[in-house]
Amino acid sequence: MASTMRAVVVARYGGKLEIMDRPVPRPGPGEVLIRVHRSGLCSTDLHLLSGRMPLGPLPRVLGHESAGDIVELGKGVKEWEVGDRVTVSVDVVCGTCGHCLTGQTQRCTSMVRIGFERDGGHADYVAVPAANVVALPATLSYDEAAILPDAVACMYHSLICQGKVDRGQKVVILGAGGLGIHGVQIARMVGAEVIATSRKTERLKAAEQYGAISVDTTTRSVGEVIREYTKGEGVDVVADNIGTRESIREGLTLLRPGGKLLVVAYLDETFEVPSIPLFKKEQEIIGCRGSSREDLAVVVKLAGSGKLTPVIGAHYPLEQIEAATGRLQKGDLVGRIVLTRS
User: Which residues in 270-331 belong to E strands, given as ranges?
Assistant: First the structure.
């Protein structure tokens, strides 16, 4: 094994993602070293450049979606073997706080995150706790598995665990991008009716292919569509994948009494909520952050059995990170960008 590797890093806030040679990490006690074959490029990777979420000492290797093979075991690791095909849950948690002990690991008060405060998978190798690893079935490719930890598991956590979406409910997905296109599939999988919005024609077509009613917000008001579709009652759940003041405000107007607004995205720092309609209709605003390892294990099984389809919009070699980020910023893709390794 080489002593150095290629890695995509934040070298300074306000700059750009760069390829840098970094030492190959060594797995500590209870950890495994993974040779990464594929990693998913997320808009969050670009947000991290701003310093809005401190990453600790720089340079930091990004990448919170990855899949590959275990190539080395740290001391004390017995449940995995070299050669196992795996993907990786993002949150490194304490396992002892009240949240962890009740299975709500995404709320751990002392977590660090892979690809955030801890070096991630946009590299040739990544060292992670063995407790974060999830085995891949033979039916899943590295391409498909790489985007499961966030693009799919996050929407599963949001809709199923937080929103309690179920059969017969009406669900609006605001923003049918890398997250939203998987949200459409998840809501349809459990028997909900789905309306998905976008300004991009190809994203709307994809949402329709997965069973949604699509709304082009450049030509129609989603509020008008929902009023017609529900005869003025409103929908059960709105998942906001846009994260602006405007999208939050609009999402609340789409809800029926007792409906839930799931805040998945966080583009704007703050938003305002009209208090009287909120309390009068007993509506809920629910924050949705990431996913647990258990959520990831569920979506791996669902994708492996063909019940969910990871949607990939483009492939770029790791060393073409500048071109990949440019394509991501263009916003014309359906699904995730996957970074490949030669």
Answer: 284-287, 312-317
Q: Mark residue 280 as left, alpha or beta (left: phi above 0; alpha: psi -120 to 50; beta: remaining).
A: alpha
Predicted TM-score of the model (pTM): 0.95
d(CA 171, CA 241): 13
Contact 260, 237 (CB under 8 A): yes
Distance of CA 25 to the CA centre of its chain: 25
Q: Is 231 exposed, middle or buried (0-12, 13-18, 19+ CB in 10 A)?
A: exposed
Structure confidence at residue 88 as a pLDDT band (50, 70, 90):
very high
324 sits in which H/E element = helix 321-330
Asked whether the beta carbons of 24 and 5 are under 8 A apart, the reply is yes
- Got the DSSP string for 158-199? IIIIIS---TT-EEEEE--STTHHHHHHHHHHTT-EEEEEES
| Model confidence pLDDT, tens digit, residues 115-169 | 999 999 999 999 999 999 999 999 999 999 999 999 999 999 999 999 999 999 9
Cα-Cα end-to-end distance for the chain: 15
Distance CA 332, CA 342 (A): 26
Per-residue pLDDT at 207 exceeds 80:
yes
Asked, as a colleague might, if the bond just before 27 is cis with ω within 30 of 0, I would say no
What pLDDT score was predicted for residue 1? 77
Spatial distance between the Cα atoms of 68 and 86, rounded to a whole number of angstroms: 6
